[in-house]
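A student in our group prepared the protein record below, which I am reviewing. Thanks in advance; the entry in question is below.
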Amino acid sequence: MNVDDLQWQLSNLGGVPPRIVDEILERGGLEALVEAAREREDWFCAAGAVRGLCAVGEFGRAWTVVEPFAATGWQPAVRAGADVMLRLGHVDQALELARPKRPQENAVDAWRDYAEALVRAGRVDDAIGVLGPHLRGGRVLGALVEMTEGQGCDERVLELLAPIAEEFRRDPKQCDDLWGVLPAQARVLERSGRVDQAIRLLGADVAARRYGPQNNVEFYAELLARHGRVEELRDLADTQRYTAVRPYVTALENLGRAGEAEAYLRGLIAAKHPGWYESALMGLLIRQGRVDDAIKAVEHTFDDLYDGNLLQATLIVLADQGLHDRALGLTEGRRPEFLAENDEFWLRSNRWWLMGESGRAREAIEEIQVLPADRVEDRELTIAWLLAQDGRVEEAIALLRSLPGERAATDLAELLIRQGRLTEAIAAIPDVAAQREEKRRRHQPGRPERPSSQ
């Protein structure tokens, strides 16, 4: 086991992908994950096994799983190992493990993790002291706010944040990596009962455009919504539409004023303001059970050739409501220009998905099989999925086993999981060494690209 392999797994979602691990855990495959962590040195299997073992109180076994990973000094494993030791009640050992031992590339992350361990050990003052020297890096601000919530130290946190916030306000362009201090300060003020001050300070910052990413504006909008400042939220939505319209509409809806929310969105659409307000309107109407009105609100976008097209979003919403036949109807009758621009691949794949979900998998397979192979993206993978939807699981499994590539292996694993064949599902995923070699060969200079289905 080495740090390079572990970091590659994390950076590339390599080994057994996290979503596969989650599915295995949900299906009762805890022991299969424990074994895979030991035999394959697979980090995501190890993390899933630790999570599952801790959930049933088997902290000693969880430590046995994570200890070889933590022994490498790799920070995510150190963090997980310290967590297990704390759960075991071995506070001194946990803190010793979490304490940064040497200079490292992600030193800020290591000190943050150590501070979190100190908080869990009841040493909040020490944790704040550890983070103090790193706050101007920007990445620790959120961690400081989160780990001190409910610890009775809001005033001390505010004392640390105030000079950094003022530094940013004086010269945002020179301190653009500190933008997170503004919502951090507002959040601590809010939780300490000083809501008016939080709104006043952050509102002035937004008005003066003292922020980095737009999520500062989004935080301010949500702050107003949490405290019923609907009129102020409406003013913000009028000037910061991309980030404040949705919180405003949600606030109205939560107050039982869905009619006002609908009228506001329809007004924006009628005025042709830039933005995807049709999408917000569709969601609002769907939540009220007005499916016909929701489709009517967005159907004028269905033949658009560019970003404003909401056809796929509508198909997904209708499928979520179980209205597969209704969704299928929307895939028909599209303009020739739209079909030409999309080369029909996108529309066909959505159509076959909906047919598979609505019990028409055989019909979908027949449609695929009469088309030339080069007219169907991911042809064999799509057929395998449809076979499974049609109940022909063993045929689907055999087809997937015959296909190369990570996508086929993952699809095979998911299908095996649904059959309860959990150990077999893990075995279907190539191990880390094989995946790294495949990726290396695939990216060799001059090597031709494989078809997307491989």
Remarks:
- Residues 55 and 172 are 44 Å apart (CA to CA).
